[in-house]
Amino acid sequence: MRPNHATLRSNIFSPSSIALYTSCKGAPILNRVFGINKKSVCLTTTCTVADSKALNGRLPSAVVPMQQAQGMGFPLPGDFVKMDDEHDTTRLRIFSGTANLALAKEIACYMGVELGKINIKRFADGEIYVQLKESVRGCDVFLVQPTCPPANENLMELLIMIDACRRASARTITAVIPYFGYARADRKTHGRESIAAKLVANLITEAGANRVLACDLHSGQSMGYFDIPVDHVYGQPVILDYLASKVISSQDLVVVSPDVGGVARARAFAKKLSDAPLAIVDKRRQGHNVAEVMNLIGDVKGKVAVMVDDMIDTAGTITNGAALLHQEGAREVYACSTHAVFSPPAIERLSGGLFQEVIITNTIPVKEENYFPQLTVLSVANLLGETIWRIHDDSSVSSIFQ
């Protein structure tokens, strides 16, 4: 059963980082994908897709907080800044590739616009064909296409979409890349290696993109590989809001970086969780997609450990780290990651009982067979939708996170 309505579930932890879960027609079923539970501190309302258009991408004012929200110091609906201005959509076009159509539909639903009509097909020899089915002349075009596995196919599809828009006289073309493939190939670690992240940036620029909107790049320096503006947004606020709904005592909480390279990310995450203490898993990598856990820096005994990383691929790093945390006396272990690549044997490792919960976002679609009881998927549709509005309106993007 697929509900034919949009459900807006906004955790009331931060007005600037409202977590929005949508269930437009054709999107995954909410209860399975988002793991909604009665203990969550949230605001819930329901609107039709037509209502979403009328809202023009803004949350409705008639939202009733759940009982758990009262008396806990969270802002109520009236505390949010009311935005009465309407957006001009006459020159706005949003198209989706085939990599994550569900997310693109959620973004369009949040913004109250329709996805643009586009024909994408593959010939028998594997070549990709793209045709826009509506005019984009003089329009600001946003192309939603993560370059997730199969990375090469999805990247090539994005490049051809950009080229089609350029040749159709679009005013501006923004590549909305929720997950940026090849981002880990951002430097040379051995002699005679390619820096593929720079190559991909060049390809996107040469294809005709004027701007890139990316979410949680593996490393910040990847933005510098582009010769066009890059808006880099973070999925952390969505995960932070969800964790806040669990009302975990700050005295029981410790944020853990699964490796030394992720310390800066984990420290920023810990600062937003009431300046929680930080622990680090020290490991030695013996080869690609292989990690060996060595020791733990910090104290996790009797605490709820929250492991933070930008992506989960084969899950070797994070599961080895979780095993070490349990050995060191951690009471519960949560895994939090923006991007769920989930290459084999990730699901087997993550569902093995080491984690109380595995919290990810929908920057990459999760296959039906990859769901397991501990998995919670949060939507970044509102975050990307709001960013698209601000780019289109020539407004500040960084103020979203202030």
Describe this structure as you would to a colleague.
The protein has helices at 30-34, 49-55, 101-111, 151-167, 196-207, 236-244, 263-272, 316-327, 346-350, 381-392, and strands spanning 6-10, 43-47, 64-65, 92-96, 118-122, 128-132, 140-144, 172-177, 211-215, 230-233, 253-257, 278-287, 290-297, 304-312, 332-340, 357-361, 375-378. The chain is globular, with a radius of gyration of 21 Å. The chain folds into three domains: 6-79, no CATH class; 92-235 and 382-401, Rossmann fold (3-Layer(aba) Sandwich); 240-379, Rossmann fold, CATH 3.40.50.2020. The strands form four sheets. A seven-stranded mixed β-sheet has the order 13-12-11-14-15-16-17, sandwiched between helices. A five-stranded parallel β-sheet has the order 4-7-8-9-10, sandwiched between helices. With 402 residues, the protein is of the alpha/beta class. The longest helix is centred in the middle third of the chain and has 17 residues, at 151-167.
Provide key terms for this protein:
Rossmann fold, alpha/beta, 402 residues, 3 domains, single chain
Write the layout of secondary structure elements.
Elements (H helix, E strand, L loop, with lengths): L5 E5 L19 H5 L8 E5 L1 H7 L8 E2 L26 E5 L4 H11 L6 E5 L5 E5 L7 E5 L6 H17 L4 E6 L18 H12 L3 E5 L14 E4 L2 H9 L8 E5 L5 H10 L5 E10 L2 E8 L6 E9 L3 H12 L4 E9 L5 H5 L6 E5 L13 E4 L2 H12 L10
Parallel strand pairs: 4-7, 7-8, 8-9, 9-10, 11-12, 11-14, 14-15, 15-16, 16-17
Antiparallel strand pairs: 1-2, 2-3, 5-6, 12-13
Helix pairs in contact: 3-10, 4-5
